[in-house]
Amino acid sequence: MEETKKTNWTAELKEVFNDFLGHRKELGHPVTKYAKKLLVKKVNKAVDEYDCQLAVSCIERSIESGWRSIFVNEYDIKQWKERNNLAPKSFNIDDYFKEKGTG
Fold it and tell me: What is the pLDDT of residue 96?
């Protein structure tokens, strides 16, 4: 599989990636062919390791922050894990007893 192909991208991810390319152009830093290849590779890695929604969130944060690259950070990973029930949420003892019907 060639890593520069947009594999398994949703329509939303394709759209936000193109928005990011426009964002770069507006910043006065248009993406070269090689830079685009690297960005696609980075997004593909996020999609493979997590999902398209995480990649969309990372790209949107990059645009909001005026960044010139795309970053997957711990906050995005934590949000992804919570959304997919892979990370423990904060534990509240009162809620525990309410669920058990003893509180």
Answer: 60
> Does 27 reside within a domain?
yes
> How many domains does the chain contain in total?
1
- The answer to the question of residue 84 being in a domain is yes
Q: Which helix (H) or strand (E) holds 68?
A: none
* Residue-number span of the structural domain to which 55 is assigned: 11-100
In a domain, 66, yes or no: yes
Band of pLDDT at residue 2, cut at 50, 70 and 90: very low
Query: How far apart (Å, rounded) are the C-alpha atoms in residues 36 and 97?
Result: 52
Residue with tokens 């929604």: 53
Provide, rounded to the nearest whole percent, the portion of the chain with pLDDT above 70. 80
Question: For residues 55 and 77, what is the distance between their CA atoms, to the nearest angstrom?
Answer: 10
Q: Are 24 and 68 in contact (CB under 8 A)?
A: yes
The pTM (predicted TM-score) of the whole model is 0.75
Structural domain contains residue 3: no
